[in-house]
Amino acid sequence: MTSLIATANHNFTIDPTGINFTGELTFEEWHNLGLQLVPIAKSIGFIVGDWINYGESRYGEKYDEALKRTGLSYKTLQEYSYVARRVEMSVRTDNLDFHHHKLVAKCKDPEAQRKWLDTAVKENLSVARLRKSMNFGRVATEDEMEQDPADRGVVTHLALINRLIRWWKQTTENDPVNKWDPEQRANVKEDFKLVVDIYEAL
């Protein structure tokens, strides 16, 4: 296999299936390797998403063939493309995970996206706590995170439905469905197919 990261250190290689350690690393070497890897992991969704969006705008239908060759699922590529398109480069922050940005991608206004991302950094919000905070329209407290059975691992269908209702009211109040663009509607409808499948199974 070919190493994915060029390195002068012969004590390890990074392959598509992981890291192969062939010798001893000093603590500093191990630490520096992590400093190279983590930013890539946090950024890969945006990197691939920007690549897809460039190909679509530059090559039109031709880019479909390139996407097929990546080996990634269409849903994953669609998610990367959607978030990269919705969250402008100037709004993104390298202090947060791609999944934080995926949450704020539902906000049409870049200023609203920036506000929530800045809040997530300032308050050190996890993805779950940012999601709840956006549903509330304010920062969810630690106590509120503990009070929800779904956040404690005791998942009931009523708790999940109540969270879904709160999210729907908050989302449509600030951003009515009739103002959503076709891609946004399609993405949300795709997500809700899982709920429909559960309903039809009853």
Q: Brief overview, please?
A:
This protein is mainly alpha-helical and 202 residues long. Helices cover 63% and strands 4% of the residues. It has a two-stranded antiparallel ribbon.
Approximately how much beta-strand content do the residues carry?
under 5%
Largest pleated sheet: 2 strands, antiparallel
What would the principal axes of the Cα set say about the shape? globular
Task: Please state how the strands of the largest beta sheet are arranged side by side.
Answer: 1-2
The H-and-E topology, N to C, reads as EEHHHHHHHHH
Q: Provide a count of the helices.
A: 9
How much is the radius of gyration in Å? 20 Å
Query: What do the pLDDT scores average to?
Result: 82
Question: Which residues form runs of ≥5 with pLDDT under 50?
Answer: none
Q: What helical percentage do the residues reach?
A: 55-70%
Distance between the termini: 48 Å
The total beta strand count reads 2
Content-based structural category: mainly alpha
Could you characterize the architecture of this molecule?
With 202 residues, the chain is mainly α. Helix content is 63%, strand content 4%. It has a two-stranded antiparallel ribbon with strand order 1-2. Strand 1 and strand 2 form a beta hairpin. The longest helix is centred in the first third of the chain and has 33 residues, at 27-59. The model has no long low-confidence stretch (mean pLDDT 82).
